Each structure stands twice: as C-alpha cells, then as structure tokens.
TrEMBL record:
Alphabetic keyword roster: Glycosidase, Hydrolase
Name this polypeptide is given: beta-galactosidase
Ranges for domain Beta galactosidase small chain/: 723-984
Pfam families (UniProt xref): Bgal_small_N, Glyco_hydro_2, Glyco_hydro_2_C, Glyco_hydro_2_N
Catalytic activity field: Hydrolysis of terminal non-reducing beta-D-galactose residues in beta-D-galactosides
Similarity annotation: Belongs to the glycosyl hydrolase 2 family.
One of the protein's GO biological processes: lactose catabolic process
GO cellular component, one term: beta-galactosidase complex
TM region(s), chain numbering: none
Record's keyword annotation contains Zinc-finger: no
Length: 986
C-alpha cells in the first residue's frame, strides 16, 4: 500500500534519506569508477493520470507496458503536458493540498549485482526528481523524498541480494512541496537528473568541508572530515598544485575531525584568475578528489570583497533548460553555456531559483564565475492570498524550509565559485527565512547570505524609495529597481550595506534597453556592486511542423491553463543557443576594456576589471576613407590597472575633404594571458561624414500628360506619374514600366515588442495602430525644367479619438533622379505622450534586396539598446538585416545611420538615401501587420515585396516587460517635428 497522506504533510519530507553530503564521486584507489554504476537509460514505465488509478499490485512486472528514458521529464516524452506559469499556482490555493487527482509515473528497472558483497554499503543516488517519490527495492519500501532540485541518497544495502535486483520509483507530479517550488518556469515532472548506484566499503569518508582564509601572504586551508561510522579510518590528505605536492598528511578519522594547513604564497582564485588546486582524500579502498580554489569572501568597508578587493557582479540568472529534453541537460550543453557566458564577459551566475546540476558548479570553478547558489524555494503565488508570508512565517512549514537550506549548503559547500548562499526567491520575508539564514551563517561563516525578500520590505510602497538596510541578510538586493531609486541608494550614506540587483534588465524579446545606464551607476557608486540580468536562456519548447519548419512553444500552446503565455521567452540566448542581439549588447556592456572618444585625436582607454592588470598590450587603430584603408598603426600600452583609465592620442591627419572617414580600434586576443575567451574587442568612430553634392543634371522633365487628375513626365529612361487628387506618385522604367519607387506611407506604428508592454497599451488606446489619413490639399509646382515640386497636406487620426497629426510633406523631384522629401508634423488636440516611431515606409519590389550603409552594425540597434554594434561600412542581404524573435515583434532597426544604399539586382538600379541628420532604417519581407499579429515564427509569411522603413526616430526599448520603462531621454515624445530625406535613383 502507498501512503498518500504524505503528499499533503509539509512536515514529512523524507524517509530513510541519508544526511546530505558534499557532492563528489568516489573512485577506487586505481582511479577507476568501479564502484559507481550508471543507472541511466531506458526504464520500464507506467503512467497514471491520477494516483487513485494506481493498482494495489503496482509493483508487479506486468503493470509496465511502456518505456521511458532516464534522465528525462515525462512531459517531454509524451506523457501528460508541459505547463507554464510564472506566479500563479495551477491548482487552487489551499495549502498543503494541491489536486485531487495527482498524475503519477512509476519507473522500474533491474540491476544485476554479480559482485554483491554483504559487508559493503550500497547507496542509490538521485540528483533530481520532480516532485517527490517513493523508492522500492525488490518490492520493499526503501525511502521517500521531497525537494525536486535537491539530490537524495539512500543506503539500500539491507534490501539487496546477489544477482538481479529490482528498483521501482513512484514519482508524483504534485505534493505540498509544490507550494514552495513555484518558480518562473515550466512545470515538468519525473526523474530528470542522473541515477547512480554507489558501492562503498564498510567505513569511508562520508563528508568533507574545505574552507580557506587569507593571512598576509599565506592561506589557511581548513578541512572538516566525517567518516561513515565511528570506527577509526586511516586517511592520507594531499593538496597538489599541478604535479607538485603542496601538502601531504596522514591521520586517522574517528567519525569527525578537523585539520588545518598553511600554504605559503598561494595562487588565489577569482573569476578573472580561476586557479585551482587538487585535494585528494585517500583511504585503503577509496580515493576522493576535488579541485578547489583559495579565496576569501568578506564584507569590509561596506563592500563585498574577494581576497580584499571589491568586485562588481556582471551577472546573469540561469535556469536549467533544454528545448527538447526540458530540464535534463548534458555536460556538453553546460560547458557550452559557461563558455558563452565567459565570451560575453559575464563573471557571475545566480542559480535561479534552485540548486543546479553539480557539474555546472565544477565548470564555474574551472572557468571563473561567481555563484549565488539558491535554495529550491519559491512561493510567489501565495501572495494572491494577501499574505506573502502565509507559509514563510508558518512554523508548520519550517522543516521544509530548513531542509532546503541544509540541502543546498551541504551538497555544494566545496565549490569555490559559490560565494553567496540564497534562501530562495519571491517567497516573502518570514521567520522561516530568518531561521534559514541563522543556520547557514553558523554552518558556513565563510560565505555571504542573500535574501531579496527582506530587501523588498525595505522599499517604501508608495514612493518606491529604498529606506533602510536589511538586518538578517548580509547585503541589500532588489529586482528591476528604477534608475532614480538606484541613484539615490548610491548617494544615501544611511544605506551602509552593499547593494546588488539580483534581477535587472529583463531580456524578453527585443531588449533589454538601458543596460549601459545601469553599468554607469555601478561604476559611479561603489556600494552598487552590480547585478544579474534576467535571464540567460529562452525556455521555448521545440516543435517540428509537418512541413519540416521549426517553431517554439510557450505557455498556452499545450492547452495549459492558467498560463503566462510567452513570458518564458526572456533570455539572452534562444532555446537552441542562437545568440540574440542582446547577448552582444551584454558583451559590450560587460567588456573588460572599453574605448571612449574625447575628440578626433584623443581616446580614453578604460579597464573595468577588478583584478586584471593589462600589460604590454598593442592596440591597433585603422583609419578608413570610405572603405579604403589608408592608416594602420599600433599603440603600445605598457600598463593599465584595474578600474583605471588612460588617454591615448592618435595622430590623425586627414586631408581628404569629400569622403567619409572612420577610425577603428582593435584590442587583440587576450584569452591566453587573461582568461577571457574572446578573439578581440572592437570599437569605431565616425570622424567625418561627407554629404555628397547633388547629382549632375543631364536630363530635363518632358511633360507628357498634365490635367486636373494627373501628371505624367519622363526624364531619361524613367517616368514620373503623379495623381493630383491625393498626391500619390510613382517612378518606373520608361520602356517596360517596372516600378522603381512610389510614394511612401507615413508610419507611426511598429510591431509591438515584449518590452513595449505598458506603452503599447496606451498607444492602442489612442488608436496609433490604426491611424487613418485624410488628404487636405495637393499642390504641384514646376517652375524649372529639371524640378517638380509636390506638396501634400494630410491629417492622420484614429477612429473615435479626438487627436491627430497634421502633416505637410513636400517632394522635390529632380530630373537627375534625386528626390528630396521634407516632412513637417504637428500634433493636435488630446494626443498621446509618445509614439512608437515617426518615419516613412516604402513598398519596393523583391529585387531591392541588398543593403550597404555607413552606420551601426552588423546587428540591429535602437537608441537605448545598441547591442554591441559599431560604426562601419556594412553590406548585407535582406535576410541578414533582422532577427527572428521566437515571439514575432519589431526587429532589425539600424540606429544612427549616415547613409543607406539599396540595390536592385534585376534592373541595376540603386537607391541612395541620406538624411539631414543621422536616421534609422530597417527592412524585411513580411508586412508590419503580419509581424505585429503573428504569435510564433512559423506564422510569418514572406511576400514578394521588400518593405523599407526610414525613420526619423523610434521609441526606445527599455525592459518594461518586467522592469523599468524606457528612460525619458530615449522616449519618442510626440511634439512638432521636421525631418528630411534625400533619395537618389542611381
């Protein structure tokens, strides 16, 4: 019989589970893994939509008709369905109860123990099972556990026998513990991490805890040891540096003992210098090895310091996710992710919001990433009761809270990269949290304690001001804090503890904007010690369509209700690890060296690292005239200290007048010497922009038709047609009437981005998405043979709305193929504060597919989201201009463009476009309406046209999907405006 009452009893957490120990994999003395049996692979499986349907003989072999892969989530293998929520519980809130019918998966496999030894200890270890499970060995109950993202280990020696043994695991999708596992992610179930059978001798090193402190130029290495039983256990301890033995000591462990070593002049571990030593614990039968770094974490002078030096967190939040396998991820994927983080100069990771796979911490130690390790605890949805501390201050839930704190600390305590423990996320600020903090500080005083929920209580609900320091946690930590609030914290002497942003700049869809401004605040105010971007990776689930196309699914696509829609698509990289433009924006903002222009000859070189001294570094600069290189030299930088800058002078001597001049800087590859996985850092500036003279006039206009309805004029091999009633016009080829260019539409809308959020609601309320035009007058002037002037006065307004924009657009057609477009607009009546964009849209034939420009590239850019772009001369095809966000939205804009040339390959025409100032452009083959209405990438439909958008300005991006709105200086305020474009048909 199965005792189901445990599923609604928060005090009953485990049965027969071993005390949590540090993660390690014991080996035989010969270095082999003979004592670890991998139980991953195909298991027998039986799925029940309700636990009530489980038969009384559920352990019988004939109940298992299906197969399933372990590790893996069963929803990703065809059983049940994925369900996505951010905050809301998918079940009625009535803790500790969830559903009346709980889906259950029962796993079964056999183990052949040919070398069974009755004196050995046999442990079965589960690295992760969601949500909770019973364990049966040879049809006998051997254990139970709650805590999905925590490992669990059971001594099953008494249940085993020589030969074939049967392991059965009954996994429940829901229990009372689901209330405290309400993280922003998919609800996925099953044995999703590895299962291992570990054979160990009668006595062995069960647990160890290594800590380091610095004393002058030396390090004290402290080691706590625990044997499995009280019997004396001979042990040899060795600490090695590469092949050199630094420490070697033999002793006998009697259950518990401590030992200390002094290491002289050690190499220290930081995220910039992740130097590791190797610890070896060797008994007669086993050897345990562990790589560790020597470092000290402290708060001193109101600052978080590593090895006595203040640090800045250039961090990111990370969920575990794979677009095919759910939360089952491979070592190869984890290493790819860490390398990509390092290549983007990310130096810290917050494990959001649970302990992650042990191998990931190994990689953080190896490559150098500071870690906030977080307990598997979130009850965000409980806030809908009106009491966010309903569970967090309830003593009945204290055992569950404490268990999760103990689990994360005890398993991960030997990973050097972990410098902060976190009691969880978005779960209020209750007495249970305070107990967790007190225990963790006593158990591990070598690390800091984080609790964002306590900081949330320090915020004034009305003014949003941060009013006081936290008491229990070691430092202040908030989410998505507004710039002005953060600035006041930096200036407020009453806030004495360090301050970080555990989540900021929400990277959902196109965005985030405003990252640079946050970094500026971090650099200006020492107590603002950085933050962690939300989040690393989109959690879209891959689907292959019948036609072979690939799309990605999000909340609601599986019929899951309630759901939070596409809020799960909010990462710097896409589910398949495609790098989004924002990834490169982060790389630019976080880069260790940056170059700022003071004037044409002087540039500021800034070292933003915490520890790295750059020495004997050659910086290359190149000066281009148009695309021709005419200067290439190097500047030797002898020394550039952390957090310091120097000014370098470039002897620029430009004599050319009628050309565009840019200067490019390249900081060479730094990876070998400075532990950054990059090729180079690049920056460029436009020194001179030349506006070309008007094309020589060779042809005159010949008027073929002119009456009250239309004008038809030819010039050279082209024809101009103007409709005089509404001012529509087009230019086509004279011989075969192929269209070249036609009157553009005024464009004030863009396909809404995820981060437009609040603004989009206001824009739609004002009807900006459905503006209609009314032609007020059309005036034609032709005073000379080589010019025709057309002025169109219009009003743009929205149905049932008392506001509009009066527009006067003047087109001056020159017979040399030049068209000057001058637009003047005035908003009238009760108009909106901002607009998505102000510009023109052109409908071109599909042959206009090649784009050359001087401006920012190669990726998209917006006024507050430059995405690592630099100035250069660029060439791209239409397919390269944009980016396919999984939830379709505005993309592909190029901010700060000096000129643009669009080529038509068929009729060998080119359009040269310039503005009276820099402008913005984008182009695509799908309509703006399709882009705005589509909800998945497979719903985008290419047309046979090219849609070219020339913008006076676009509204900024911001991160309002879950953060601050666009800053004032980046908003597109609706006020009287004027702009000019010069188009030349070449």
């Amino acid at each position: 019989m199965i005792d189901y009452t445990i599923l609604s009893d928060s005090k009953r957490i485990q049965i027969n589970r071993e005390p949590t120990r540090a993660f390690y994999v014991p080996k035989g003395n010969d270095g082999s893994n003979y004592n670890c049996l991998d139980l991953n692979g195909e298991w027998d499986f039986s799925y029940y939509t309700s636990h009530k349907d489980i038969p009384t003989d559920f352990l019988a072999e004939d109940n298992f008709e299906n197969k399933i892969m372990v590790p893996g989530n069963w929803q990703m293998q065809g059983y049940g369905k994925p369900h996505y929520t951010n905050i809301n519980y998918p079940f009625p809130i009535n803790p500790p109860f969830t559903y009346d019918n709980i889906p259950t998966g029962i796993y079964r496999r056999n183990i052949n123990l040919e070398a069974y030894n009755v004196t050995d200890n046999y442990f079965i270890r589960f690295e992760g099972v969601d949500n909770c499970f019973y364990l049966y060995i040879n049809n006998k109950l051997a254990g139970f556990n709650k805590g999905s993202r925590n490992g669990s280990e059971f001594n099953i020696s008494e249940f085993l026998k020589e030969g074939i043994n049967t392991v059965t695991v009954v996994v429940f999708q829901w229990s009372d513990s689901s209330y405290i596992e309400d993280q922003d992610m998919w609800w996925l179930s099953g044995i999703f991490r590895e299962v291992t059978l570990i054979t160990r001798p009668k006595n062995f090193i069960f647990d160890f805890f290594i800590t380091t402190t610095l004393e002058d130029n030396n390090a004290k290495v402290s080691l706590e040891l625990k044997s499995y039983i009280k019997e004396g256990l001979p042990l040899t301890i060795t600490i090695s540096d590469q092949d050199q033995v630094c420490v070697k000591k033999a002793l006998t462990v009697n259950e518990n003992c401590s030992v200390e070593f002094i290491m002289e002049n050690p190499k220290l571990w930081t995220a910039e210098t992740p130097y590791l030593y190797e610890l070896s614990l060797e008994t007669k039968e086993e050897i345990i090895t562990h790589r560790f770094g020597i470092r000290q974490v402290e708060i001193s002078e109101g600052l978080i310091k590593i090895n006595g030096t203040p640090i800045t967190f250039k961090g990111v939040n990370r969920h575990e996710f794979n677009e095919i396998f759910g939360r089952t991820i491979s070592n190869e994927q984890m290493e790819t992710e860490v390398r990509l983080m390092k290549e983007a100069f990310i130096n810290a990771v917050r494990m959001s919001h649970y302990p992650q796979h042990p191998y990931f911490y190994y990689l953080c130690d190896k490559y150098g990433l500071y870690v906030i390790d977080e307990a598997d605890l979130e009850c965000h949805g409980i806030g809908s009761t009106g009491d966010k501390n309903l569970l967090s201050s309830d003593p009945h839930w204290l055992p569950a809270y404490m268990d999760r704190m103990v689990q994360v600390v005890e398993r991960d305590k030997n990973f050097t990269s972990i410098i902060i423990w976190s009691v969880g996320n978005e779960s209020g600020n209750g007495t249970n949290h305070h107990e967790m903090i007190d225990w963790a500080k006593q158990r591990d005083p070598s690390r800091l304690l984080h609790h964002e929920g306590e900081s949330r209580d320090c915020v004034n609900a009305e003014t949003k001001a941060y009013e006081r320091d936290v008491e229990h946690a070691d430092f202040n930590s908030t989410m998505y804090t507004e710039f002005h609030v953060l600035q006041k914290v930096g200036e407020d002497a009453a806030i004495k503890k360090p301050f970080i942003l555990c989540e900021y700049v929400h990277a959902m869809g196109n965005g985030p904007g405003g990252l640079k401004e946050y970094l500026d605040l971090f650099n200006k105010y020492p107590k603002l010690q950085g933050g962690f971007i939300w989040e690393w990776r989109d959690q879209g689930i891959k689907k292959v369509l019948p036609n072979g196309d690939i799309t990605y699914l999000y909340g609601g696509d599986f019929g899951d209700y309630p759901n939070d829609y596409n809020f799960v698509l909010d990462g710097l990289v896409q589910p398949d690890m495609t790098l989004s433009p924002s990834y490169f924006g982060v790389k630019k903002a976080y880069q260790p060296i940056s170059i700022d222009q003071l004037d044409d000859r002087n540039y500021n070189l800034i070292n933003s690292t915490d520890f790295t001294i750059f020495e004997d570094m050659n910086i290359k600069y190149e000066i281009y005239s148009q695309e021709e290189l005419f200067v290439s030299k190097e500047i030797l930088i002898r020394e550039l200290l952390p957090k310091e800058s120097i000014t370098i002078e470039v002897p620029v001597d430009i004599k050319e007048e009628n050309t565009d001049i840019i200067i490019k800087f390249t900081i060479p590859e730094l990876s070998d010497k400075y532990n950054v996985l990059i090729t180079s850092i690049k920056e460029a500036f436009v020194l001179r922009h030349h506006i070309a003279d008007t094309l020589e006039t060779k042809d005159k206009f010949i008027i073929n038709t002119k009456d009250k309805n239309k004008l038809v004029a030819t010039f050279g091999d082209k024809q101009l047609n103007i409709a005089l009633k509404n001012g529509d016009w087009e230019i086509c080829t004279l011989n075969n009437q192929l269209p070249i260019l036609a009157k553009p539409k005024h464009n004030f809308w863009r396909a809404i981005t995820d981060n437009d959020f609040v603004s989009a609601h206001m824009w739609r309320e004002f009807g900006v998405d459905h503006l209609m035009s009314r032609t007020k007058s059309v005036t034609l002037n032709q005073n000379v043979e080589d010019k025709i002037s057309l002025t169109v006065s219009e009003n743009y307004g929205a149905s049932a709305k008392y506001w509009g924009i009066d527009l006067t657009t003047t087109y001056v057609f020159n017979s040399n193929g030049c068209i000057k477009i001058k637009v003047a607009g005035t908003p009238i009546h009760n108009y909106p504060e901002t607009l998505p964009r102000i510009g023109l849209s052109f409908n071109l034939s599909k042959e206009y597919s090649k784009f050359n420009w001087l401006g920012r590239g190669p990726l998209e850019s917006y006024n507050d989201a430059l995405n690592g772009t630099t100035f250069d001369f660029y060439k791209q095809d239409i397919e390269e201009l944009g980016f396919n966000y999984l939830y379709p939205q505005e993309n592909g804009n190029h901010f700060s463009t000096y000129w643009l040339q669009v080529e038509n390959s068929d009729i060998e025409n080119k359009l040269m476009i310039k503005g009276d100032k820099t402008f913005e452009f984008s182009s695509r083959q799908v309509t703006q309406e399709n882009l705005d209405e589509a909800r998945h990438i497979h719903e985008l439909e290419k047309t046979n046209n090219i849609y070219l958008y020339l913008d006076f300005k676009q509204h900024g991006i911001g991160s309002r999907s879950c953060g601050p709105d666009v800053q004032e200086q980046y908003k597109l305020k609706l006020e009287p405006f004027e702009y000019t474009f010069d188009l030349s048909i070449l």
